[in-house]
Recover the amino acids of this structure.
């Protein structure tokens, strides 16, 4: 039969978009981190939905509380990347029968509530269904003035920046799943990054409303994937001359014979913001983020040539568009 | 261990509500058909999320197009019951690998789009994930003035009405699953009710903004379940003196030795509105619904005694609060 071979997540999303009737005057184009609809005046309603699926998104050892919290955090991260405050959360919960008990439901409810309250929002409703695997399908709602920080907009020469260091999650996942070594304290740091991810909402909100940011997205599919997506949407390339990595991940890489570049670029499940900043606004942007106790780490710049290149110690290396992709990546 | 015995959907929802921090000034209480958050002025943002799970919600023989359309319709029905127009839809899609192909995805996208366009709304975004069973988690957004038709509000003496006849879906499901008989044309009517359910959005929208309706909800868990829910939330009972059933379902019941009352009250997956109307406003309410080519069928009245009673030909019968409940009902 025609069209029955397996296709990847990106192709599926493109195909769906192609089949949908497009809402007139859509304030945010298909394929950005969030969706939006016009409200009265200059205001827009911002929406985001994404599901946590236990089989792919909940590593061994993660508690139900942590899984439920993560389901919220991964959605908040998309709002953060656009500079939008989430006003309310609704949750469609898919529970396997083994979790339809007071103990499990209490833990899940507490985790969702904790995640929402951490970011100043509330869960206002939802629904419960019976599924074979645990599924937490979260939807966020917020309002904004019609000037979100989109994936498109980066210009040749803009400063490429991130809100934190990379590689902890990739390292932590390896520790959880395989035969890797780390001291107890390093293990705790790395595994904690997996179990308790944080969204950069304060940073995203601090930057909104100014003209500092020319493009932005979160790094949930991996830093390499985000850079290629920003590249595609903004029609620029990136030259990275500083690896956003801490001594913890470097130590883990050295002790386990792993490539630190791999850990930094091809991790995923890491919820930093990846942004381009207009060079003349760099100091101001950095300051507003520091005011909310965040950091803006410059790692390179946008370039005319539509490639993503890492240049360290004079050596250039292409960063390929690999990253997590459902139906293509192996679990 | 304490708290590990299986509990039903209703108890799970109550438990979750108890654990959540309640948003201040929530315009719609927990446990109604939709959720809401305040916007500026008198306006509120209305949200609804519910997932279609293939194993429980997609009967044998239903196409992917129909399943995707139904996922939208079942959410629209909740908006209909509150008299709210859905402005935009987002969808978190969980696909098993067997459906990650062009043919299946096209059919799913077309079904979702068709369902949204039928009710004048648009799908503006979403996400795709890998799941073991097909899951279509739909979220709706709309705005309204702060005067929704809630589940609470029915008063002793109000007229109980529905927007259509019941029992077709229950009959159709029996035809699809078991050894029941029907003529080809009857079969088509009954099976079509299962495969192509409709939400009563026009009716709900026609009634909004007036003070005709004292309480309202949809009948997706079965008419009996809706009546008991309205009874609980409004602190009234109901006396039903007319069975909302057509000759098609009566014929099916007689030919198969089934109780027509069972088919009418304990079906579920039927998306009519169940409303109470202030008696002095009955004619006006009926007229506005007929203006949009809908119907308002009186089936009884709200009574002081908090019971749901069917009285036909002088014989009284208690309508028990049975209905579909995840983790308790058998598939």
């Amino acid at each position: 039969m025609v069209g029955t071979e397996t296709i990847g997540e990106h192709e599926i999303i493109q195909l769906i978009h192609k089949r949908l009737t497009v809402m007139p005057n859509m304030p945010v184009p298909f394929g950005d981190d969030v969706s939006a609809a016009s409200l009265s005046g200059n205001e827009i309603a911002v929406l985001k939905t994404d599901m946590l699926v236990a089989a792919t998104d909940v590593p061994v050892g993660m508690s139900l509380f942590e899984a439920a919290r993560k389901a919220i955090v991964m959605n908040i991260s998309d709002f953060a990347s656009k500079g939008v405050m989430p006003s309310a959360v609704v949750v469609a919960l898919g529970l396997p029968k083994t979790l339809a008990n007071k103990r499990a439901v209490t833990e899940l409810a507490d985790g969702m509530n904790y995640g929402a309250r951490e970011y100043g929002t509330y869960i206002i409703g939802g629904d419960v269904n019976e599924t074979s695997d645990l599924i937490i399908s979260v939807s966020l709602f917020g309002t904004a003035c019609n000037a979100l920080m989109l994936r498109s907009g980066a210009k040749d020469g803009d400063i490429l920046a991130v809100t934190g260091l990379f590689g902890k999650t990739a390292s932590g996942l390896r520790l959880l799943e395989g035969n890797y070594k780390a001291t107890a304290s390093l293990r705790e740091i790395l595994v904690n990054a997996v179990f308790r991810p944080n969204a950069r909402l304060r940073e995203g909100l601090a930057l909104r409303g100014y003209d500092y940011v020319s493009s932005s997205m979160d790094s949930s599919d991996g830093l390499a994937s985000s850079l290629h997506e920003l590249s595609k949407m903004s029609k620029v390339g990136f030259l990275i001359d500083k690896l956003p990595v801490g001594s913890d991940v470097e130590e883990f890489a050295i002790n386990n014979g792993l490539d630190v570049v791999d850990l930094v670029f091809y991790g995923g499940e890491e919820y930093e913001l990846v942004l381009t900043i207009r060079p003349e606004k760099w100091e101001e942007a950095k300051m507003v983020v520091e005011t909310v106790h965040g950091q803006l780490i410059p790692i390179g710049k946008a370039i005319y040539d539509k490639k993503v290149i890492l240049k360290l110690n004079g050596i250039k290396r292409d960063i390929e568009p690999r990253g997590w992709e459902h139906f293509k990546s192996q679990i």
Observations:
- Chain B touches chain A through 78 residues (CB under 8 Å).
- The CA atoms of residues 54 and 134 of chain B lie 5 Å apart.
